[in-house]
Amino acid sequence: MTQYDLILLGAGHAHLGVLRRWAMFERPQGRIALVSVGHHAWYSGMLPGLISGQHAADDCRVELAPLCRGAKVELIVDQVAALQADTRQVQLASGACLQGKWLSLNVGGALSQPTQSGTAIECLAVKPFESFLQGWQRWKDDPAPTAIIGGGAAGVELALAMARHVPHLALFCSGRLLSGHNAGLHLRALGHLRQRRVNVREYCPISHIENDQLFSEQQAVWQGARVLLASGAAALPWLAQSGLECDARGFVNIAPTLQSFSHPHVFAVGDCSALPGAMRSGVYAVRQGQVLANNLAAVLHGTPLRRYRPQRQSLALLATGDGGALLGWRNWSAGGQIFGRLKDYLDYGFIRRHQWQG
Ligand SMILES: Cc1cc2nc3c(=O)[nH]c(=O)nc-3n(C[C@H](O)[C@H](O)[C@H](O)COP(=O)(O)OP(=O)(O)OC[C@H]3O[C@@H](n4cnc5c(N)ncnc54)[C@H](O)[C@@H]3O)c2cc1C
């Protein structure tokens, strides 16, 4: 078993920020590794732009090897299969086993999938991005009616990006479209979706898939062959089996220092964690990265930890698939090409900041 002082699990938004800080400034002492399923970290905010043809794949991902070299962190390309919080052991899919004095989890979430009987409908999940992009290429080359399940920011942006390529596109959401966002943004998004002839079904939770039909409770609501899963994050199953205290949905309960309540030697951030006031979105994960970098260095050096306070509001910028974007801030909303340019500026800035040279 290979021993480390600190193991970063998953190349999520917060860990990218940690690596960048350590590459730019002083890195804490000790043997440190990052475990990532791939050689790249994809930036979800740019995925809709990749689908609509605004970006190339290389624009939307950060190469991990140079960033890890800069931060003097060992890059282990493998998948975490299991974690034992009590013994601090990490089992990898390759069969290798690692042990860390400190662990930090930034592995994101899974997608919820309705139960399915029959194989008439092909379900494609938006994550992991590599397999989604391969599946999408196949779908794009041979278009057929498609339903998207999930009416959050991801579902809306993907529907707007895909509409040009898919003949009949339906978007299902369990509640109001873009719930949690302001009413103006909701109306603007509906307007754009109608313009692209996307059939939007609000308050229509999909309970199960039977043969070639989607059901909401006992009623068949759609018939077709392809379903894209883009509904809210579910927890990765191995987290609840790790011994870490998790909430009812299987996300790791953390304190404001970003440490697990039950196992303070394990940090957890981003979509895999649960903290009152923190939303599951890239914006929150990025902000947590600043406190995480400080606190990981603090535990390795024995200095005081900082507390993370979730911001009350966050700016929403949703790509409309035509180079433009919708903006939502508090009760205010707007839309147009200028916001698309603002989104590109921020998104490309994120990638540039983490694309380490040397
Ligand atoms: C299409 C789309 C558009 C979105 N747009 C926005 C947006 O504009 N703004 C916004 O704030 N949010 C957006 N989101 C939500 C956002 O993607 C997530 O909330 C955010 O990515 C969470 O960040 P994270 O750091 O927790 O995890 P992630 O960014 O999901 O990163 C997790 C990392 O862990 C890796 N991983 C997973 N399992 C394992 C394992 N077992 N072993 C090793 N590595 C593993 C993954 O490969 C990934 O690299 C969007 C989501 C989608 C799907």
TrEMBL record:
Its cofactor is FAD. Keywords: FAD, Flavoprotein, Oxidoreductase. GO terms for biological process: aerobic electron transport chain. Residues 4-289 form the FAD/NAD(P)-binding domain. It comes from the Bacteria. One of its GO terms (molecular function) is NAD(P)H dehydrogenase (quinone) activity. The keyword Oxidoreductase applies. SUPFAM superfamilies: FAD/NAD(P)-binding domain. Pfam families: Pyr_redox_2. Transmembrane segments: none annotated. InterPro entries: FAD/NAD-bd_sf, FAD/NAD-binding_dom, NADH-Q_oxidoreductase. PANTHER family: APOPTOSIS-INDUCING FACTOR 1, SLR1591 PROTEIN. This is Pyridine nucleotide-disulfide oxidoreductase. It comes from Pseudomonas marincola.
